[in-house]
RNA sequence: GGCGGCAUGGCCAAGUGGUAAGGCAGAGGAUUGCAAAUCCUUUACCCCCAGUUCGAAUCUGGGUGCCGCCUCCA
């Protein structure tokens, strides 16, 4: 079986073959750290985290590099607004990014270069481009000459002569005058009063956005990498420009596979800062949506397709996750001593036939351009009996305790946990209430007394009040009541 | 105007030639003072038109609708 990925360069599904057998180098476009990350970022980085975990599971040694853009107009604007510095804004948002990603169980990149720490590499690359005649300087700025680069447009499939100049209406006219061609873009911007700047052969200034990624890839991973990742909105101009810069400088292909994730939409429109229709990751998580619910929500759709964010869909994911979590928690909590967490990839040959088949269906789904939706279906099927058992165990079913020692079930639990981990799904502790056990028992006793006196209004009031504090009551035959923190 | 993508049950969403995964919701049953939770069971011919084929959601052509990008963007 071969992993197949949709390569934006060809617009087709291609067999994935790394440059060096067994090794994969990946560069992922990171965030501009002017603000908190929203669900669009979450979706993107969850998708790429799954790609990375899957490659690792398949036995590849993966090197994953992701940048922080910490030199940018938006960061400067933010700093000006709050009377702080570009560095202060950046540092704060980098800390927030790290924390948000950790909550979502996204593996930290192996290396995370920052623009401010890559000035040497950036200047060196611009010098190469200038020496090769691919760049020109004008009034302290340096621009890349798109017409000098033969392949310009190959990623986004664009013919520059067909493009409407300034279709988005955002071009600064004074900058246009310095350019030889409207689509030329800045490699280096001459300093402006009051802005941070760095020394360079072209005078003090700061790097343009596109050049940092080219410089970082070159410095961290070399001229050609296996996979380059990013959001679909980066295809043009960012990735197109990255290709132009890197390939003009090295004469070699920048990346063999370009993968792009679809946007998160709200009411049919792209979630973005500029539209103001965004929900930040932490706002969502702080509102009580669990990280794994968000993960499941994003993985239910294919990574290339747009994903509509609605309260209903999120709620559906939350309920779905509850069931999966019950099965995973059974494994993790060791309710059965026979079930222990899996350590790395299982050996299909050692599995019972039904589990081996499930494992192979999972792998086939993932091999098919990371079809996480189909892969999740396998997880749900694996989870079904475990989830039923977990729920019976929680409710003190005596027979369930015996069933839980069944080795076949243990193997199933182990496989479930292994495959869930490939998707970055891990058991999640449910939110614990603040009441002590004794207090809860007291309330249950009061409710029992009320029920005995047929005062159901009081009984229901007690039940509702406990429910509001996250305590779920389960009435059982014989007038007994169990409770769970949910 | 150019480039790219999408259209599957009430909602989300797999499936790219052989007779529709999975999740949520709904329905029925078990259980309950009533619930909740849980368990079991259950629900679609795939935007429209034409064509290719023994056979199409799946291929071809033509429509319609929606989205992304065309120098802020994951």
Protein described:
This protein has 486 residues and is an alpha/beta fold. It has helices at residues 39-57, 73-82, 86-103, 119-131, 173-176, 209-221, 235-250, 281-286, 291-299, 311-333, 353-367, 372-394, 398-403, 407-422, 437-452, 456-468, and strands spanning 4-7, 12-15, 23-32, 61-69, 135-138, 141-144, 185-190, 205-207, 225-231, 255-261, 264-266, 269-270, 307-308, 471-476, 480-485. The protein has three domains: 4-270, HUPs (Rossmann fold, 3-Layer(aba) Sandwich); 333-422, Four Helix Bundle (Hemerythrin (Met), subunit A) (Up-down Bundle); 437-485, no CATH class. It has 16 helices and 15 strands. Helix 12 (372-394) crosses helix 14. The chain starts with a strand and ends with a strand. The structure holds one RNA strand of 74 nucleotides.
Low-confidence stretches: 334-341
| CATH superfamily annotation of the largest domain | HUPs
The general outline is elongated
Q: How would a textbook summarize the main sheet?
A: 4 strands, parallel
State the share of residues found in helices, binned by percent. 40-55%
Beta-strand proportion:
15-25%
Total of domains: 3
Q: Largest sheet, order of strands side by side?
A: 4-3-9-10
CATH topology of the largest domain: the name is Rossmann fold
CATH level-two architecture of the largest domain: 3-Layer(aba) Sandwich
Please give the alpha-carbon distance between the first and last residues: 42 Å
- Give the strand tally: 15
